[in-house]
Amino acid sequence: MAPSPIDVSADAKRVVPMSVMKLADEAAPLPAKFLKKASERPTTAHNVFCKEIPVISLEGIDSPSGRERIVGEVRDACAEWGIFQVIDHGVSEELMRKMMENTLSFFKLPLEEKIKYAAKPGGFPVGYASGSHRADDDILDWRELMSHRCLPKDVRENDYSLWPDQPEEYRKILVEYSDNIDRLVTLLLAVISESLGLPSDYIKNAVGGESAEQKILLNYYPQCPQPDLTLGLRKHTDYGTITVLQQDEVGGLQAYKEDRDQWVTVEPISGALVINLGDQIQILSNAKYCSVEHQAVVNSNQTRLSLVTFANPNAMAQMGPAPELLSDSNPAKYRRYTFKDYLPICFAQKTRKHYDALVI
Ligand SMILES: O=C(O)CCC(=O)C(=O)O
C-alpha cells in the first residue's frame, strides 16, 4: 500500500514527508526510505538487556566519602562505557511521569495539530518532524520527534512560538523539567571534572557557564511492522557535552561496545536516568573518556518514548583537550576550535565519528 499523503504546506512537508505513526497504523511493508543498509540493521534485540552498564546512586553526594565513591564510579563508567545510569539523582519521579504523559499526549494529537509546530526549513532544527529533522535526508528513521531549545533562558523565550499550548500543562512542565535536568547536569559536570583531577567547576566553565545551551528532544517510536529492517534512530554520537535520557519501560536504546564489537541494550530501570558522554567530553579528556556511539531499535508490538536532554556548550566556547591534562607522555590528540565550528563538521558527515575530523 502506498504511504498516505498529508495535505500540508510545502515547508511542513519537508520535515514531515510521511507520518510514521500513520504508517505504523497501516501496518504495510516499510517504504523504501526507511530501509537501512544490511550493515546498519539491528543485531541485538530491544529487550535483551545488558546488565553490565553501570548504575550509579548519587545518594551521599554531599558527604566526602559519598562523593569519593561517586567520583570513582563515574570515572570507571566514563572510561569503560561512556554511558551509565543514575538513580537517587534528585529529579522527582512525579516530574518524570508528568513529562512522559505530556509528551505522549502531544504525539497523540491529530497530525494537523502537530504540524503547526513543524521545524522551519533552514532554521535551527527544532520543532516537530517525522522520520528526520533534516529535509535533505535520504533515509528516514522510524520515529516522530519534537524538540525545543530550552537554555539559556533568553533562547528558551525566543523558542516559545514552537512550544505547543496543548496539552495544557506542556509548557509549564517542560520549563520545570528543563531546570531540574540542568541542575543534575551541573552536578554531573562537577563530578566528571573531579574524576579527571580537575576543579569541580572546570567543565561547566569551559562550556560557557550559565550561557551553555540545552536542547530537549522527545522521541516517539511507533510499533514497526518490520523492525529488523530499520532503526528508530540511526547510530550516532552526541556532539555536545553530556546527554540525559529518560526512557519508558519498553527498551530500545543501544550502545556500541567497541572493544567487543557488539551492540548492547540499555535496561530500562524505573526512575533512573541514562547519562551518555558527548564528543566534547571525549575531546576535553583527550580521549581518556569516550563519546559512545548509540542508536535506538524498534519492535513490532510496542510503541516507545524517550525524553532526551542535550547539554551543549555555548556556540562561542573555546573547546579542545584540557591543557591541565596534557604532558609529554599525553600530547593533545585534537586541535582547539570554537564550538560553533564543530556543528558544520558533524553535519558534513565526512568521518564516521565527528571528532576524528579534529585529530592532530
Ligand atoms: O531514544 C533513544 O533511546 C535514543 C535517543 C537518542 O540517542 C537521541 O535522540 O539522540
Describe this structure in words.
- It is a single chain.
- With 360 residues, the chain is α+β, with helices and mostly antiparallel strands.
- The chain has one domain: Sandwich (Jelly Rolls), CATH 2.60.120.330.
- Helix content is 28%, strand content 20%.
- It has 10 helices and 15 strands.
- It has helices at 10-15, 20-26, 64-80, 93-107, 111-114, 153-159, 170-195, 202-206, 279-284, 342-348, and strands spanning 49-50, 55-57, 83-87, 127-130, 144-151, 213-221, 233-236, 242-247, 253-257, 262-266, 273-277, 294-296, 304-312, 318-319, 337-338.
- The chain has an 8-stranded mixed beta sheet with strand order 2-3-11-8-13-6-5-4.
- Strand 9 and strand 10 form a beta hairpin.
- Helix 3 (64-80) packs across helix 7 and helix 4 (93-107) crosses helix 7 (170-195).
- The longest helix is centred in the middle third of the chain and has 26 residues, at 170-195.
- It is globular, with a radius of gyration of 20 Å.
- Bound molecules: 2-oxoglutaric acid (AKG).
- The site of 2-oxoglutaric acid has 11 residues, from strand 6, strand 8, strand 12 and strand 13.
Hetero groups in this structure are:
2-oxoglutaric acid
H/E topology pattern: HHEEHEHHEEHHHEEEEEEHEEEEH
Domain count? 1
Radius of gyration: 20 Å
CATH class: Mainly Beta
Gross morphology: globular
Distance between the termini: 51 Å
Specify the helix fraction band. 25-40%
CATH architecture: Sandwich
CATH topology name: Jelly Rolls
- Poorly predicted ranges (pLDDT <50, ≥5 residues)? 1-7
| Strands in their spatial order, largest beta sheet | 2-3-11-8-13-6-5-4
Structural class: alpha+beta
The CATH homology group name:
B-lactam Antibiotic, Isopenicillin N Synthase, Chain
Pfam families: 2OG-FeII_Oxy, DIOX_N
Keywords: Iron, Metal-binding, Oxidoreductase
GO molecular function, one term: metal ion binding
InterPro entries: DIOX_N, IPNS-like_FE2OG_OXY, IPNS-like_sf, Oxoglu/Fe-dep_dioxygenase_dom, Plant_2OG-oxidoreductases
